[in-house]
Design brief:
- The chain is built from seven helices and nine strands.
- It is of the alpha+beta class.
- It folds into two domains: 88 residues, Helix Hairpins (Orthogonal Bundle); 165 residues, Heat Shock Protein 90 (2-Layer Sandwich).
- The protein has a five-stranded mixed sheet. It has a two-stranded antiparallel sheet with strand order 1-9. Strands 2-4 form a two-stranded antiparallel ribbon.
- It is globular, with a radius of gyration of 27 Å.
């Protein structure tokens, strides 16, 4: 039987004390906080740069659009049919690009904390009816019917009227563009749990589960959407940010092949709410330099 080899005893490993553990965790937390602040600052600076550059692009683009309008004005001379077609294409492309730049500017301003909204009591039925009225022509272009089911209670929402209509128009126009010809887009609204929920349901191709978060990111579009209609993937991200800025939420329920329901919520307003009392300003410096 072998005997144990004589030698030095191996010292037991030293265990970290509670105080040392707490100090190490505090140091790690401080490092993470510093990294988070640096990333947030970098994101804000990028957003401000993007907003500034986009704003600078609008000046020459507005000039292009203005000259296109002058060319189309027969008081300065007539154009032959082919020239009229060319001018029309210039104007359409200019307006499309201007809309994209406006969306980029607004997303950048929101991300940089430089966009103001002024919530006030708004009758949701009236807001939807006004947007539906100007959306019917677009719906007809896609051979889609637009139907609105008003809430008999006609609740008040606390919202920025212009931004609310901007969101509604984005969602209704998307529903029309991505619906099958001959189908119906249905808009509904109703109060629940202190919020008003607005839903826009289409009868389109639907959205796969793995795409439902991605479509709310800038410049992200599904393969089906790209096949069906032109777009840059900015309308949904901007709409969600505008809703969240007003204290609401936005999401989508969908089944591939059966259509989608995009919905958002906004707080119910009181009759006594006023813009002065409830104005929400998300700007740490004057927004004038980023104005559209």
């Amino acid at each position: 039987m072998s005997q144990p080899t004589a030698g030095k005893l191996t010292p037991e490993p030293r265990h970290e004390t509670s105080a040392e553990t707490i100090q190490r965790l505090r140091s790690r937390v401080a490092e993470l906080e510093s990294l988070t602040q640096a990333l947030e600052q970098e994101s804000r600076e990028k957003s401000l740069y993007l907003a500034s550059m986009s704003h600078e692009m609008k000046a020459p683009l507005n000039a292009i659009n203005g000259f296109a309008e002058l060319l189309a004005d027969t008081s300065y001379g007539t154009l032959d049919p082919e020239q009229q077609r060319f001018v029309s294409r210039i104007a359409e492309a200019g307006q499309h690009l201007l809309g994209l730049i406006n969306d980029v500017v607004e997303i950048a301003r929101i991300d940089a904390g430089r966009l103001e909204v002024a919530p006030q009591p708004v009758r949701i039925n009236r807001a939807i009816e006004q947007v539906a009225l100007i959306s019917r022509g677009l719906a007809r272009d896609y051979d889609v019917s637009l139907r609105f089911d008003p809430d008999p209670a006609d609740p008040l929402v606390l919202a920025d009227d212009r931004r609310l209509k901007q969101v509604l128009f984005n969602l209704i126009s998307n529903a029309a563009k991505y619906s099958h010809a001959g189908s119906v887009v249905r808009v509904q609204a109703g109060a629940e749990n202190g919020h008003v929920r607005v839903s826009i349901t289409d009868q389109g191709v639907g959205i796969r589960p793995e795409d439902r978060d991605r479509i709310f990111e800038p410049f992200e579009r599904t393969d089906a959407a790209m096949r069906m209609a032109d777009g840059a993937g900015l309308g949904l991200p901007l709409s969600r940010r505008l809703v969240e800025l007003q204290g609401g939420e936005m999401g989508v329920d969908s089944k591939p092949g059966e259509g989608s329901t995009f919905w958002f919520t906004l707080p119910v307003a009181r009759e006594t709410d006023t813009p002065a009392q409830d104005a929400l300003q998300v700007a740490q410096s004057s927004p004038a330099q980023y104005a559209d």
